[in-house]
Specification:
Non-ribosomal Peptide Synthetase Peptidyl Carrier Protein, Chain A, 14 helices, single chain, eight-stranded parallel barrel, binds flavin mononucleotide, TIM Barrel
């Protein structure tokens, strides 16, 4: 699969997820079969004002490539500057967030709100495309109002601005992040443009991925099903032949994630960020209830290792 000049070895992509798609998690997903990993969104305004935390969100590790860094904002010049910074940091692709429905983001005219002013959206995309030598992509939802497929028009607009590919989160705004994707609406977008379309929304199994690709998408982006489960990418590759992973293997992966988080974020923040996904790693195991209850009290890596040793098969 090709997104502009960027060649991917397969169709399975890790979605950008704020607070989740950080370097440790992205590296684990790459290692387990994600063909492209997308970083959590970074504010173009915050980068403009040299916010240290946001600058660090552009950090890229050598074993992550190919990688997409995503920016959000509504000012064409600041977005172009942010795109340049992302490309200079090592992004193979720079993505513009045009789908985030979170009020804090929408209030600034960014995310989903950016699609309300299509002239400004076009300016933002054009400036980003001219600012960098790497491909620029855009990620949309189907639309703010159920049944009115804005993504068809927005994908066409993105294509005319020189965007290399679009991702469509095949849900309407009111669905949030749950419920089945609207595959018919996704097909309508894929049929409308010549640039590659990545489908997204509700992919949990190889069969889900196949159905999404059958709509005409070149690949699928996986979000929540990858949280606490980087092994999903192996399952997607292996399809029905996939064997369940041993409990031992999953415990080891969780421990590796914890070690990488602590190395990257420091012990306190590394463990706090891991809490969000710890339960998901072992959700199907008989010890899950005991583990989950105690995992939320864990504050250090050695406490986590001790707990894992107690519940490990
Ligand atoms: C915790 C969380 C954070 C997210 N952050 C972002 C983000 O930073 N940028 C973005 O474009 N989408 C973001 N999303 C949306 C996902 O990329 C994806 O579109 C959505 O989860 C649907 O895919 P799924 O059904 O596979 O989870 C986020 C979703 C979740 C659950």
């Amino acid at each position: 699969m090709r997104l502009g000049p960027v060649l991917l070895d397969g169709p399975f992509v890790l979605a950008p997820m704020a607070g989740v798609s950080d370097p440790p998690f992205r590296r684990l997903c790459r290692r387990n079969g994600a063909s492209l990993v997308c970083a959590e969104m970074v504010s173009a305004n915050a980068l403009h004002f040299k916010d240290k935390r946001s600058q660090r969100m552009l950090e890229v590790f050598p074993d992550e490539h190919p990688l997409s860094l995503q920016v959000f904002g509504s000012d064409p010049d600041r977005l172009a500057k942010a795109a340049k910074m992302a490309a200079a940091a090592g992004a193979d692709i720079v993505d513009l967030n045009c789908g985030c429905p979170v009020p804090k983001v929408m209030r600034t005219g960014a995310g989903l709100a950016l699609t309300k002013d299509e002239k400004n959206l076009a300016r933002c995309l054009e400036k980003m495309v001219s600012a960098v030598n790497v491909p620029v992509t855009a990620k949309f939802r189907l639309g703010a109002r159920r049944g009115r497929n804005d993504a068809v028009r927005l994908a066409r607009l993105a294509e005319s601005c020189g965007v290399a590919a679009v991702t469509v989160h095949a849900r309407w705004k009111d669905a949030g992040h749950s419920g089945p994707p609207d595959l018919e609406a996704l097909h309508d977008v894929a049929a409308e443009v010549r640039i590659p379309v990545l489908g997204n929304g509700g992919v949990q199994t190889a069969a889900d991925a196949r159905r999404m690709i059958e709509t005409g998408c070149v690949g699928v982006m996986v979000g929540q099903a990858a949280m606490g489960n980087p092994l999903i990418f192996r399952e997607l590759w292996e399809g029905e032949k996939a064997k369940p992973f041993s409990e031992r293997g999953v415990f080891d992966l969780l421990l590796e994630h914890a070690r990488m988080n602590v190395a990257y974020f420091g012990e306190k923040l590394g463990i706090v960020r891991l809490r969000k996904v710890m339960g998901a790693y072992i959700k199907n195991f008989p010890q899950a209830a005991t583990f989950r209850h105690r995992a939320y009290q864990v504050e250090t890596l050695s406490e986590l290792v001790e707990l894992l040793n107690q519940v490990r098969p």
